[in-house]
Structures are given as C-alpha cells and as structure tokens.
Amino acid sequence: MNNYFCERNHEIEVFERCYYNQLPLMLKGPTGCGKSQLVQVMAERLKLHLIKVACNEDTSSADLLGRFLIKGAETIWQDGPVTRAVRSGALLYLDEVAEAREDVVVALHPLTDHRRELYLDRLNETIQAPASFMCVASFNPGYQQGFKELKPSTRQRFVSLVMDYLNDEDESNLILRLTEVSSNEARMLAKLAQKIRLLAEYNLKETVSTRLLVNTAKLIHDGMEPRRAGYVGIAEVLSDDPEIIRALKDLIDLSF
Amino acid sequence: MNNYFCERNHEIEVFERCYYNQLPLMLKGPTGCGKSQLVQVMAERLKLHLIKVACNEDTSSADLLGRFLIKGAETIWQDGPVTRAVRSGALLYLDEVAEAREDVVVALHPLTDHRRELYLDRLNETIQAPASFMCVASFNPGYQQGFKELKPSTRQRFVSLVMDYLNDEDESNLILRLTEVSSNEARMLAKLAQKIRLLAEYNLKETVSTRLLVNTAKLIHDGMEPRRAGYVGIAEVLSDDPEIIRALKDLIDLSF
Amino acid sequence: MNNYFCERNHEIEVFERCYYNQLPLMLKGPTGCGKSQLVQVMAERLKLHLIKVACNEDTSSADLLGRFLIKGAETIWQDGPVTRAVRSGALLYLDEVAEAREDVVVALHPLTDHRRELYLDRLNETIQAPASFMCVASFNPGYQQGFKELKPSTRQRFVSLVMDYLNDEDESNLILRLTEVSSNEARMLAKLAQKIRLLAEYNLKETVSTRLLVNTAKLIHDGMEPRRAGYVGIAEVLSDDPEIIRALKDLIDLSF
Amino acid sequence: MNNYFCERNHEIEVFERCYYNQLPLMLKGPTGCGKSQLVQVMAERLKLHLIKVACNEDTSSADLLGRFLIKGAETIWQDGPVTRAVRSGALLYLDEVAEAREDVVVALHPLTDHRRELYLDRLNETIQAPASFMCVASFNPGYQQGFKELKPSTRQRFVSLVMDYLNDEDESNLILRLTEVSSNEARMLAKLAQKIRLLAEYNLKETVSTRLLVNTAKLIHDGMEPRRAGYVGIAEVLSDDPEIIRALKDLIDLSF
Amino acid sequence: MNNYFCERNHEIEVFERCYYNQLPLMLKGPTGCGKSQLVQVMAERLKLHLIKVACNEDTSSADLLGRFLIKGAETIWQDGPVTRAVRSGALLYLDEVAEAREDVVVALHPLTDHRRELYLDRLNETIQAPASFMCVASFNPGYQQGFKELKPSTRQRFVSLVMDYLNDEDESNLILRLTEVSSNEARMLAKLAQKIRLLAEYNLKETVSTRLLVNTAKLIHDGMEPRRAGYVGIAEVLSDDPEIIRALKDLIDLSF
Amino acid sequence: MNNYFCERNHEIEVFERCYYNQLPLMLKGPTGCGKSQLVQVMAERLKLHLIKVACNEDTSSADLLGRFLIKGAETIWQDGPVTRAVRSGALLYLDEVAEAREDVVVALHPLTDHRRELYLDRLNETIQAPASFMCVASFNPGYQQGFKELKPSTRQRFVSLVMDYLNDEDESNLILRLTEVSSNEARMLAKLAQKIRLLAEYNLKETVSTRLLVNTAKLIHDGMEPRRAGYVGIAEVLSDDPEIIRALKDLIDLSF
C-alpha cells in the first residue's frame, strides 16, 4: 500500500505548487482517505526524506525539538524529529496536528511563515530551513464530538487541501494493486464500501476506509469465507453497536 | 486454566489468517470470556513467545518502549516490553488497549500498518518487526458508562474478532478440565451461569465469567458447603447491592 | 485489640479454603467491622508474615513494587512492600484497594490469577509467588457518594467475603477482653452500639465501630464521667451536625 | 497570647486522659477559638516537645516523613517533622488535618491505632512511637462550602473534643492578660464579640475570634481612635461585603 | 510615580501603628488605587528594605522560601525572597496574596501570629523574625467572578485597611507631580476619571486607575492629540467591547 | 512580507511616543491584521534588536527567564529570551500574551511599570532595563469562546492600540509589493477579501487575513487556475463547514 497514489482532484499539483512556493500545506480529510499515502508518494516524487510525527496531547515540545541526554559524565544534545527535518531539509509530516499541545504548535509558527526558521530554546539557536524543507500537516474535520480545534493563527499559515475517498472504480483498481484477489472480488468490495459510505444514518463515527477493504481482501484471498472476512474485516471493526453491526452484516451478505 | 481454548466461532482460523497475513487483531468481548486464554493458546500453537501488556492510563510510553537507567556512572538503555516484543518477533498482547494513554496508542500506529516498525525517539532508532511478530489487542465494548473509546484511526488498523461466553455444555466441560468437581456439579455450575447471564434485569455491570465458576468449583471440591461457595465465589463477587445479591443467592439456592 | 477475632459467619473457614486453594480474597464491609483484625489473626494462625499496604490515590506503583535509589555513587534497587511480600511468600493485605491508582491495580492482575507472578518492569524480572503467598484485599461498599469502584476485571479475580459488626453479646465480650471496664459497663456500651446502628435515619456516613466502644471504655475506666466519655468517644466522633450529635447524646444519656 | 488557656468544658481533663490512655485526639472548632492555644499549654503541662504541622493539599508525604537530600557526593536522609515527632516522643499537632493529601492521612493510620508505629517506605524502616508520643489533630467543621471531609476510617481513630469561643467574662479577662487596655475597654470588646457572634444573619464565613479582639485592643492602647481600631481590626477583617461591613461598623459605633 | 503617597483616610497612621505593634497588615482595594505606592512610601519612612513578592498560582513554596541549587559538585542553599525578608528584618509585601497556593499561605501562618517565625522544612531551621520585620499583603475584593478567596484562618491574622481611589483634587495634584502636563490638563484628566468611575453601568471589570491618567498625560505632553491619547491610554485599555469603548470615547471627546 | 507596514490610524506615531515615554504597548486585533508586521517594521525604524516570544499555556517562566543547565560537571546559567531582551535593551514582543501562564505574566509586572526591572529568582539578581528596552504585547479580543482574559492589573500597565485589516486599496498595493501577480489580480483579491470580511453571517471564527491573499496570489502567479487557488488558499482554510465553504467558493467564482 506504500508507493501509489490515485489522484482525485489535482492533489499532486496543489502539493507541488506549495512545495515550489515554500508554502506549508494542510491535508484535511477522514481517516484512511489517503493523506499519509499522498505524503509518502510526494516525498518520493520530490526526492525528499520523509519524517513523520504523530501528534498527540502527551507529546512535549522537547520530544519534537530535542533534549539534553546524560550519558555517563557527559551531556549530549539530541535533535528531535522536527529539528532533524529542518536541519536536513526533509519533508516534515505532522499527522493529526490538531491533537498536539499548544507549545508544540506555537514552536512551529516561525517555521510556517515567511521566516521558515526554528528556534531551539535550550540551545539558544535559530535554524534556518533550507529551500528543500516543506511542512505538511493533516487534520480530520470529521470528528463530531468537539475535539480540539486549531486556532485561526495556526490554520491561516497553511494552504488547505480537502481529500475524500476514491470513487469505486479507482478504489477497485487500488485493491487489485495491493492484493491478489480477483478483479470481481475487488469490484464487489469497492461497491460495498460505496454503499456503506452513503448510509449516513448508520451513525458511524467514521466510515469504511480503503485499508479495511485491503485487509478484507487479503483474508478472502487467503481462503477465508468472504462473508466472515467482511464481518471481521469491516463490520465488527466499524462499530460496537449490535444493531449497526447487524445492518452492516446484512449489507455484506447481500454483496457476497 | 492455562492451555486450553474451546473454540466457539472460528476464533482460531481468524487468528491464524491474521498472523499469516501480518494483520493486527483486536479481540472484543466481556471480562472473562476467554480473550487472554485464546492469546495464550495461540502463542503456543504458533510457537511464539508471548509478551502481555496491561494497558492503563498511568502507563507512559517510556514504560512500554524503554528508558535510560542510571547505574553508577553509566547510563544504560533498557528496552520496555513492546520493544522487546518487536525485536524478538514475539506475540505482543495489549490488554484493554482503550485504556492506554494517547502517546502510547500513537507510538503503536506504525507497528500496526504496512510499515510494521517501531520508532524509538530516545535512541532515534527504527526497529523493523520480523515476520513472526504479531500485535493483538483486547477491548471490552460492554462497559456502558462512557469509558474511553478508541479513535477510528486506531480501530481501523485491526481486524476485529468478537468473542462471547461458552455455551453451557462447553463451559461444563471446561470446569471439569480445570477442577476436580464431579460432572454433576460442573453441569450445575454451568447451568447456573447461563441463568445469571440471561437475567439482564439484574443490572450487573458485568455478568459471571468462567473464572468465577472455576473458583467456586474449587471451594466446593475442597469441602465447602456448595451454597456458601456460590455465595462467596459468585453472588458477593458480582454485586454490592443487597437486593441483587439476595436475588443471586436465591438462584444459587435453587441450583444446589 | 490485636490477636483475637470473633467469628460471625464462617470467616475463618472461607479464609483458610482460599489460602489452601491459592485463591485471592476480598473482604467487604464497613469501617471498623474487623477486617484488619481477621487478617492479623489469620496471619498468626497460618504462620505467615503479614505485610499491609494502605491503598490511596497518591501511591504510585513504584511505591509498592520498588525503585532505584541513588546512594552516593551507586544505584541500589529497593523492593517495595508488594515485592517483598511476593518474594518472601507473605500474606499481602491491600487495605481499601478501590482507592489505588489504575497502574497499581493492573500490576496486581497477574498476581491474582492462575499465573501468581509479579512483573518488575524496571528490573525486567518476573517473580513467581511461592505457595505460601496469599493476597487479601479490602473494600468498603458502604460509601454512598460515588467513590471509586473496582473494575469487573479486577473484582472477578477475588473470592468475596462480606463482613458486618458483631452482635451485642460478642461485642460486649470483646470489650471485656480489650479493656478493664466492668462487664456491666461493657454490656451497656455494646447495647448502645446496637441502638445507634439500628437508627438508619441518623444519616451517618458510617456508624459506630467497635474501636469507638473500646476507646470510650478506656476513658470510663480511667475515671471519666461515663456520659462525657460517650460524648467525646462516640457522639462527637460520628458527626459534625449539631442535631445528630444532640440525638446521639440523648441516647448516651439514656444508657448511663 | 502563648501560655494561658482558659478552660470551658473539661478540655484539659479530656486531653490528659487521652494522653495517658494513648488515644489520639481531634480538636473540632472554629478559627481562633483556642485550639492551638490548648495544644501549646498542654505541651508545657505534660512537658512534651511540641511539633506543629500545618496540613494543606500541597504537602506531600515526603515533606512530612522525610526525604533523601543530595549533599555533594553523599545522599543523606533527613527526617520530616512527623518522623522527628515519633522518634523523639513529642506532641505532634496536625493543624487542619482535613486539608491534607490522602497519602499523608493514610501514612498516619498505623500511628493512630493500637500499633502506634510509623512506616518509612524509603528506608523500609518501622519506628515504634515511645510512650510519651501523642498525636493531636484539628479540624474546622464550620466551613460550609463543601470543603474536604475526613474519611470515617480516619475520623474514628480519634477521640473528639468540640471547642467553642469563651464567654464574655472569660474573654474579657483573656484580653486583659494579653494586652494593656483598661478593664473597661476589655469588657466592651468582649461584649462586642458576643453581639457579633449572635448575629448569625450577617452571613459571615467565620465570626470574630479572640485574636481580632486582642489586635484591636493593642491598636486602641497604642492611641488609635477606638472606632477606627474596631473598623480595621474587626469589621474590615471579617467581610468584603459593603453592607455587612456597614452593619459591623454600626455595632462598633454603638460600643464605643 | 515612586515616592509620594497622598493620604485619604489615615492610611499612614494605621500602617505605623501596625508596624510598632508587630501586627501584619492587609491592604484591600482595586487595581491601581495606590496599594503598592503606600507600601513603598512606608518602607522609606520606616527605613526598611522592601521585598515585594507577586503571588500567583504557579509559585511554589520553594520559590519563596528557598531551595538547594546544584553548582558543580556542591549543593548550595539559596534563600528565597520571603526568607531573605525575615532574616534581614525587611518589609515583606505579598501582592495579591489570595492568588498564592495553599502551601505558600500556610507557610506564612507562623510568621503572621505571635510566633513571628518562619520554618524552613528543607533545612529544619526556624528563623525568628527581628523586631523590624513587617508583613504586608494586598488583596483585591473587587474581582466579581468568584476568584479565589482567603481562608478565615488566614484573613484573621491581619489588620485590614480598605483603600480607594483619590478624590479629583488630590488626583489632579498627583498627576502634576508625576508628569509635566499643565494644571488645566491634569484637572481635566482627574475629572474624566471621576466620571468614568461613577458610571457603574459601563460594566467594566475594573475602572480607570491613576496609572492610566499618568500614562495618558505623558502622551499628551509629548505632543499627541489629547483625544487620541485618551483613546489609547484609557478607552481601549479598559475594555474590548465596541459599545463600551464607544461610550468611553464619547466621554473623552466631551472632556477635551 | 517582512519590511513594510502600511499605516492605517497613526500606529507608528503611537508606537514611537510609547517608546520615547518608556510606556509598554498592547496591540489588539484579529489574526493576520499586521500586528507582527508593525513590530518588525518599528524594530528596524528604531534600530532595535527584536526578540519575539510566542506565549502559550505550556511555557513556564523558566523557559522565558532562564535556567541552569548541567553541562558535564558544571552548572551553567542560560538566559531565556525575556532576560536577553532586557539585558541587551531590545524590543521584546510577547505575542498572544493572554495565553501565557500566570507566573509568566506576573514576572513581567515590574518590567512594565515605572520600575522597568526584571527579577531573576534563581540568581537573586535584579536587572534594570536600559533606556532602549521596550515591551510590546499582542492580544486578540476577537476569540468569542471565553478564552483566557488578561487581569486588570496586567492590562492597565499597557497603552492600548487597536488594529484592523487594511482597506482594499492599501491591501491591493501590499499584495503587489509581496508577490508578482498583476495589479488586476491583486485588486480582485483585495476586493474578495473585503466582501468576505463584511459577511458576518458566515459565522467564521476569524475572517480572511492578508496572509491568505498573499499565499493565493503566489499560487496564481505560479500558474494555478485562480479559482482553485482561491479554494485551497482561502475557502478551505477558513472553514471546515461544507455550507460555509460552498458559500465562500461561490464568492470566489464570482471574483475570477
């Protein structure tokens, strides 16, 4: 699943123009719609080293920027992943940036405006990002339940690219690339995904991603009964509510 | 109670197919339905070393991944249990993964997708999991009172296997395997369990698990009056509410 | 008050059968009903060293399991009380276990199922409990105001023994054993206790324990006017509400 | 204000009987009613060294029991005030014990029952209190707004002594002992205090203590206009509400 | 603005009598009414070194009392500002004492009663305050929104002095002392302040302080158009609400 | 975008008069209205070194004032950015000061009144700011959802300058200065911005800033279809709500 991205709506153009104009980019879209995939493919295309940071509320700015480590009698500075990305001019990918702590987000501000620099408090050192450095962040606006939001002063630093799931033909082709199922099975899985995604009334927190289809396809190709593969690979994954699971299983039964 | 698992619904097949397709597996089900048991039996069957981590909100990622320890004048890195599991290609079992802290869950993300790798921040080292490595997590969807939930981006990484209690014949046989009570007593205990599980109106947070039946059987075989054994091994364990306890004791009185 | 336990409802049998079947035991009951007393008496009877841990939300797992201490240039591991109990095969008493932090409770899980082992993260060492080791916990279900509860996955590990106050004859005898008051005074104190315990409408958070009767008896034997002894040893101890205190004092006045 | 206590209701007898019967004592009463005064006077009378600990939510058990301090290359254990009190057989006074953290309160449990011992976790050492050691705690039940409460398992360890303000004659005499005002002025101040204390409708969080009368008396004797002294020493101290202050000032104007 | 205080209501007498009677003093009043000014002037008058501590919820007692610092191989004790004040017999000013943490407030208790001593836990040392030492605290009762309150046991240690803004003549004279504006401009500024303070319906959190008038006067004297100076020095400072700002600007327009 | 500021309402005059009268200045206005720009331009004009601190709730006062670092066997003091600004007489810019922690804000108090000094607790050193030092803070009153507010005692230290967006002619000129788009495109972008800003009913948390226009202009000049550039550079950046995005895109479609 690692080095292919099926373009939907000029994603590659937007990404490249941001890169060449030194503008940071925000990817917005649901879980598993291909955000990480796009970043990985673009890193290869632009010949950039990719450094990925999964943001969360327990990560401190020291985790990202670096810290002094005591080794024997010496004190050694160790760059964190963000600092390494800036020094080496890499592609820095901040996954789910809205979940990061405030001090982390704020430390990234001078890196994402015209200054393009990172200030390391502990070393009292400012690092200028080389021309090749690019900062990409991702954000999932679909969580309904009042999750943390980005502040406007952070949001407005990024060009914003909305991403969504593939259409069924593209998704079917992607399943074929990534697994060894028959084209008929791939098509049935992609169609099933479309049906599930349309059924907003299922009240799912998030709907089926391509990843689930690929996992299910692998189990089917390995010999598992297709319905059971759909149950454990899709239905039981998406919900814990017996009624929703029942409805999803009915859809799966109709598909296979 | 340690090396036997009575299959209900293809649990072993699902587990094995996940293992051979390198897919992580999530076990969903109530306390004491046999999740840990399945994992232990599969570790033996697949000839894997089992490393179990009980997740909770007080465990930091350093506890799981490793830390530097100061020993005399030296600083020594000590792998945590997750790191040891990855390095050695073991079966890693994350019990009650929904209770883990965010940074712990996020650190497991690259381990549970196609990358199958673990990044050790402090060492700036990425460990590639060997083919034999498998990650299994457990989750109890039955807690009603708004306990922590898994984020979709975590959930959708796992194939999902729902588990439930044994039927009374299988449960009776299991009691016989694990204790020395008579087959009559075993059957009575299994029947009692079925009755309690059906009585949803008892408003129990969780219902009787096989473990309680085994404990009670041991006390009976040791000579304790059966009703008293049922009181201290089942009724008083399941509730603190005098009325519920009274109703459970009535059921026990009817059984013995 | 230290080496006598007056049995009410087979407490000693249940305790012993748990001990010989290697089952952990949970004592449930109100403050001062004799839980600690039972444990102490059983430790002597079973010839076990008793290690008592008072659980509370500020105790970390390091406090219980052990930690590295820096002494001069050396780093020395120091076992905590739980680790010492396991290594030496002692009777471990976890008082008010429901108040412990999650990581503490979870660390005790492998110690309280068939594994009977303790894993020391920092040492990467697993200690197998010897046959003589027993784990007993206590829990007070009577706190009404939504205090912390035990999770089912913890609760169901223990055989559960409900305890209550002594009847007035037994309580009177106990007072005589522990103080030097006259048998008449002892009987009056025990009767007073029965009356207070029956008066549920007093809305007391907890009712009078034997400990209060013993304290009061000591003050009376030392020459304090009996009513005053009852006021400072019982009435003022049980409540801060002037009306409740007034009612309790009236009861005391009627008794002496 | 330091070495005189005017007995109201057998306080000295209760204190002494607790001391000689090795029972811990809880003093209950409003701010400034003489709790600290009683303890200090009894320490002198019983010829005990007094160690006072002001409990609050920011004090850790290490602050009270002791800790290792690093001094140059050495690590030295330093006893905290509670440990020093136990080792030396002093009178330990825990002021406002209800505000202490849970781990602090729990560490005191074995010190306040028949065991009379203190366990020092870090040293793995148990100290037996000598016969002269006594533990006294104070507690203010008058705070209305849901302040922290003591758990029954803590409360029931102590004999409980309720204290209140002096009557006006005793209070007037006390003012004379502690300041140089005329007996007429002392009487007027004591009378004023009685009036304020009776006016429950003033909705004061706490009412006037003897300390305020003494401060006011000092200002008067130093030459301040009596009404102004009452304003700054009593009225403005008791409230921030302009209407209540106005009413208090009216009372003061009537008195002088 | 530093060495002049315009007395309103015997502030200097109250301060001095407290000083000579060794009574701690609490200054109560709104922001900018001259509390700090009074303290500074009294320090000069009484020839005391002034040590000011701005209390806030992030200050620990170690910040105030002192701590061990590791310098090279040595451990050195460094007194905090409160300890230095006590040792040297200075005037200690605790600004906004209601915002201090509980452990800080409690550490000050023995310093503010007849004991006049400070206990340094870490050094196990008690420092007796010399006769010249005085403790003054400030407190702003005007914050409406449920800010932290002082506990009665803290409040009742202090004599309490209420302060308010100057009348317009005194305020006009003060502006003349501190800036170089004309007496006409000074009077207009003072009158403007009176008007704003009377308009309670403006719903301002706090009203205009002398400091704002002085800042505005400086801008006017430097050549700024008076209305603009009033806008940036007063109106925009007092509120963010467009309607309130509009009303304040109208008042300013009427004044100049 | 770095060395040009287009004056709207005497911003430069107010800034300079504050500088020469040694008054601290607060800039109030929405995200991207030019606050940082003004500060940077004034630093150049006044020939001051600019030190910018982005305030947030995770920054401690040690981060800003300085700390001891252990390097090998030595302990070295390292000034934080605020201390460096004071020592060197720089222009200190505290961005979003309302988000700073209380201890940080309080440490700045003596720096922002007539004292103009900074106290370093750890060094027990007071630094007097040289004449060239100026403190500027920014604050965004537009966040509606109850974000933290500044306390009056902090607010009233600063002269207050309200800033808003440029009018469309000035904004169009600014776009031309900072990008290479045609003057026609610049005008269309500025007009679009005015339209969006007027539409209060869009319910945007913050409206479009000049930064977004500049980013969009860069993408257009690089060859991106103007509507797409507007979508990714403006519409998708400002909102996650599909209806609002749709309305913004309609406006963009009308513009190009």
Question: Would you write up a description of this structure?
Answer:
Chains A, B, C, D, E, F: Belongs to the CbbQ/NirQ/NorQ/GpvN family. Chains A, B, C, D, E, F: GO terms for molecular function: ATP binding; ATP hydrolysis activity. Chains A, B, C, D, E, F: Keywords: ATP-binding, Nucleotide-binding. The structure is a homohexamer of 256-residue chains. The first copy, chain A, has 256 residues and is of the alpha/beta class. The first copy, chain A, folds into two domains: 11-162, P-loop containing nucleotide triphosphate hydrolases (Rossmann fold, 3-Layer(aba) Sandwich), CATH 3.40.50.300; 168-255. In chain A, 43% of the residues lie in helices and 17% in strands. Chain A has helices at residues 11-20, 35-45, 61-65, 81-88, 102-108, 152-155, 168-178, 183-198, 210-221, 226-238, 242-255; strands at 25-28, 50-54, 66-71, 74-79, 91-95, 117-120, 125-128, 134-139, 159-162. A five-stranded parallel β-sheet of chain A has the order 2-5-8-1-9, with helices on both faces. In chain A, strands 3-4 form a two-stranded antiparallel sheet. In chain A, a hairpin with a 2-residue loop joins β3 and β4. The E-F interface holds E 1-2, 31-32, 52, 54-59, 63, 69-73, 78-81, 84, 96, 99, 140, 205-206, 209, 211-212, 215, 218-219, 222-224, 228, 232-233, 236-238, 240 and F 10, 13-14, 17-18, 20-21, 23, 26, 28, 60-61, 68, 70, 73-75, 101-103, 105-107, 109-110, 113-114, 121-122, 124, 141, 152-153, 155-162.
